[in-house]
């Protein structure tokens, strides 16, 4: 038996590393176990988000958008840029440097806060013991008073499209293309599929996105989803709804995809195929059979509203438990658990977890959609304001999309904010702050917003809820 800790965290992703830092800040002797190895062969902290998810994908999204603007957006501003080209290897190298910067930053934060880093695969045994298998195969056992399981998730693989490592790849592989594929297929029109499809479309690839569902972005508000679909089609993303992939055949450096849609059985050939059909909890070999923690049939760890498992002193957070697989949700759960271990009564508001798709324009929302509320028989009032009527958006040539505010028709309390357009994630966060404090649409409408800003669109949408918008014609109340 090795050292004993107040808290041992398994996993150093957004849930785990934040939990470890917060626990250490609260005076608890804390260790964090992580087995992930970076491109340099050394332990890399930060989990999927920092290494192969949120951060690297945003680096590529921003690089590809700058290239797209230089090619197609400068002329409008009177700027002539001739012979614009893209060095994909340099773009990917920049992405890798950003990843290394942030994963190294987590290691620095661990040192600053006194968190012990343990390298290897962690497994929960009975009586809150943690078995760690190091990179050399040596096994060490640690004792903890409290355990936080933050093992994260991994991309889902599907039988019709087995990964090959070069032609058929998952989201991780799609971050490391060394050249722009002429023809790119993407299975899945969710967040990951749309973001990665956008990156390579901007750089010149012909992109087809296969979505098995008949409805586009089923979790988003209807009007936002419909406008987004139109926008992406204009950008050249060929999004095929109701298209179910039935098989793939790789020949040399090409892959032929067989699929069925409303027109029957069809085939298309691509140079690369990205499988982006979602993620599943990474809980394999995490739990000993006698540790007492329960999983469901999908590998999700059972927890209560405070992320406690059925074993006292054992908690689980992030992608391994119920709820949306989002880095910010994981981090807040990590903070909540660390503070509850330290004796605080911290709770988390799961009703106000924002969702963002970092396409261009961005799509973001918080709270409930108009459709959800109507299904729950809640009478609502709706305010919509288009960015085409917003001075800052027009000046920036970012006029696509709108802000939609949904409020309770009786109390005027804001129940949802939905945005397609420039800075959507930031505007939705303003909505989330207002909603956290029980704001009414009238409250937002009475606040002073600086001019000209795109955030004025949120104020105007809030005013429009009650027919008071100034810079767009108000819809007549029925």
Automatic annotation (TrEMBL):
Homodimer. The active site is a redox-active disulfide bond. This is Dihydrolipoyl dehydrogenase. It comes from the Bacteria. InterPro entries: Class-I_Pyr_Nuc-Dis_Oxidored, FAD/NAD-bd_sf, FAD/NAD-binding_dom, FAD/NAD-linked_Rdtase_dimer_sf, Lipoamide_DH, Pyr_nuc-diS_OxRdtase, Pyr_nucl-diS_OxRdtase_dimer, Pyr_OxRdtase_I_AS. NAD(+) binds at residues 188-195, 211, 278. The active site is at 451 (proton acceptor). Its EC number is 1.8.1.4. One of its GO terms (biological process) is 2-oxoglutarate metabolic process. Binds 1 FAD per subunit. GO terms for cellular component: cytoplasm. Belongs to the class-I pyridine nucleotide-disulfide oxidoreductase family. GO terms for molecular function: dihydrolipoyl dehydrogenase (NADH) activity; flavin adenine dinucleotide binding. Keywords: Cytoplasm, Disulfide bond, FAD, Flavoprotein, NAD, Nucleotide-binding, Oxidoreductase, Redox-active center. It is an enzyme of class 1 (oxidoreductase). Its main location: cytoplasm. Disulfide bonds join 49-54. Residues 5-334 form the FAD/NAD(P)-binding domain. FAD binds at residues 58, 122, 319, 325-328. It is found in: Cytoplasm. It holds the Pfam family Pyr_redox_2.
